[in-house]
């Protein structure tokens, strides 16, 4: 699509792509949200009573930029209306147990017969094959099963989970990569396919670095914020703030140790002792001047006040009448001609399936 979209805004890179989001919870709907951020026409299917996140601050994350439609997928009428929408769709996003879809006549074999060009994103914790395929799970379970939790925490403490839904977010991004790859293949070959995405397998990409320390029957151990062989840690400054440093090259490490007063038996301890005597702002100025990778350990409020984040619009402060103050991450990465944008953050629940189908049929 060329030219300008509505309101003079350039259409997104995925403009014209019709996506049905019939998923619940976080990871799978987030995958559809990412596609909506880049211009896809996403129709979110909700139960008649509305999505379970609808009254929470998670709602803009899983529903922004989408049109919402109430369908009872436990009823024959609701299933038939969904099938009619699938016939016009490019992508279907779902996270139902395979047995439930089969029982309702919504399995891949049925839907691909209705629409051979359909790309069906099926996102689950353990994937669609293997002995654990039917187990329930979330990003947290993916983190634990995929080896990330075992590596988080200090060597003398228990394994730890991150304070954010890391597995869900990384799983959603991986699922979008698979979906767009399937669409590219479809555009050359004319056939859709099912994308079998799990939440634990993207975690394996995160822990792959630790695999360099693996030996048979000797898995890598937790090491806090440090990494073996790298001068890397979180350090407390003289004014009680924190910085993260990763001196990952020999030059970076040598310069940092020199600033800290020279070589010693424990370079990390020497660096920590020096940083504890320097205010954060002064330390940042010194290390940036020497091109040593460093950052303040930012909170959300810190980022909203940061001039770089502000200049790029990386984090957006939105005030919604119903949901209150929201801090939303802007679409990333950035496209020079068709940048993503955040759509309506609190879309209403529609009930007219015929109107939704007519819009897609005409569109």
Structural write-up:
The chain is of the alpha/beta class. The chain has 15 helices and twelve strands. The protein has a seven-stranded parallel beta sheet with strand order 6-5-4-1-2-3-12, with helices on both faces. It has a three-stranded antiparallel beta sheet with strand order 7-8-9. α1 crosses α8. It is elongated. The two termini are 12 Å apart. The N terminus is likely disordered.
Topology diagram in text:
Layout lengths: L17 E4 L5 H11 L3 E6 L12 H5 L3 E4 L5 H11 L4 E4 L3 H6 L4 H7 L4 E6 L14 H7 L2 H4 L14 H24 L4 E5 L2 H7 L23 E6 L5 E6 L2 H10 L7 H9 L4 H10 L4 E3 L3 H6 L1 H6 L2 E6 L3 E6 L19 E2 L2 H10 L1
Parallel strand pairs: 1-2, 1-4, 2-3, 3-12, 4-5, 5-6
Antiparallel strand pairs: 7-8, 8-9, 10-11
Structural category: alpha/beta
- Count the beta strands: 12
Assembly state: single chain
The helix fraction, in percent, is 25-40%
Globally, the shape reads elongated
> pLDDT average, as an integer?
91
Spatial extent as radius of gyration: 24 Å
End-to-end gap: 12 Å
Task: Quickly count the helices.
Answer: 15
Topology order in helix (H) and strand (E) letters: EHEHEHEHHEHHHEHEEHHHEHHEEEH
Q: Which consecutive residue ranges, at least 5 long each, have pLDDT under 50?
A: 1-5
- Describe the strand arrangement of the main beta sheet, using strand numbers: 6-5-4-1-2-3-12
How much strand content do the residues show? 15-25%
Main sheet: strands, sense, barrel: 7 strands, parallel
